[in-house]
Amino acid sequence: MKISIITVVFNNVDTVAAAVESVIHQDYENIEYIIIDGESDDGTLAVLEEYKEHFTTFISEHDEGIYDAMNKGIKCATGDIVGLLHADDIFASSDIVNTINKQFESDASLMGVYGNIIYFSTNQNDIKRKWVAKDICPNYFEDGEIFPHTSFFVRKKVYDEIGYYKTKFRIGADYEFILRMIKVHEYKVKYINNTIVKMRLGGESTKNLSSIITSFYEVKNAWKMNNLSPPLSFYLKRYYKKIKQLV
Asked: Among 10, 190, 4, which residue's Cα sits nearest to residue 86?
């Protein structure tokens, strides 16, 4: 089974090499590696040049933001499974892709797999926080839950059937896609209690109060555009958890 890994890059000269290394050192061989660069001008392209032999597809051009770049990568992908590894992040170990592949191979009806992530600051061994996800349950989204999108692997056919990330969102398109895929279309996904990705602190959705407010409105719009109405308690539960992340 071919697995496509997409790394979106824009001016990540200090971190992109670690992300690339964590992909090319996976012990799973059938990987298609796609790099989508947004015309970096800080030396990132020189770093990527050193690894170009490992890239199946490399695009460097202007984009309309991270979700537009992610969509470009997904449209290029020819693998059965698609995973997204951002240029600030790394896979937690060399057997992650192999572990994910085994989950999909064992169940043809499985459309997505997700797990846990850990946050670090500068040193990847200096763990600051863990995000331990939960199994999907009947009131999963209504209870304010969501799993880390950076740990999510999806069958390519899902994107082909229900569409891509909505570029009208600034930081909430991943939430909307997960909501649409699972809550609306009811695709089968599975939680595995494995750490999938090590992620640097400072993500856009939790880095400051302004981002949390933006996230609030975008999550609200995600429900509305999918003709869904969460209970009033959803907002209290959701943003209590977001503020805890910020703290």
From this structure: 10
Report the pLDDT value the prediction gives residue 188, as an integer from 0 to 100.
98
Question: What phi, psi does 4 have (nearest 5°)?
Answer: -95, 125
Sign of the C-alpha dihedral, residues 194, 157, 135, 170? positive
pLDDT tens, residue by residue, 209-220: 677 788 888 999
Per-residue pLDDT band for 166 (boundaries 50, 70, 90) equals very high
pTM of the shown model: 0.92
Give the three-state DSSP class for 138.
coil
Strand 81-84 and strand 3-9: the pairing is parallel
**Measuring CA to CA, how many Å separate 113 from each of 118, 122, 153, 213?**
17, 28, 5, 29
On whether the CB atoms of residues 205 and 172 are closer than 8 A, the answer is: yes
Q: How many domains does the chain have?
A: 1
Rounded to a whole number, what is the distance in angstroms from the first to the last CA of the chain? 41
Question: Do the beta carbons of residue 36 and residue 9 sit within 8 Å?
Answer: yes
Residue 6, helix vs strand vs coil: strand
> How is residue 38 written in tokens?
């947004």
Q: Write out the two tokens for 180.
A: 């649409």
How many whole angstroms separate alpha carbon 42 and alpha carbon 33? 22
How many alpha carbons lie under 13 Å from residue 210 in its C-beta half-sphere? Answer: 2
The CATH code of the domain that includes 72 is 3.90.550.10
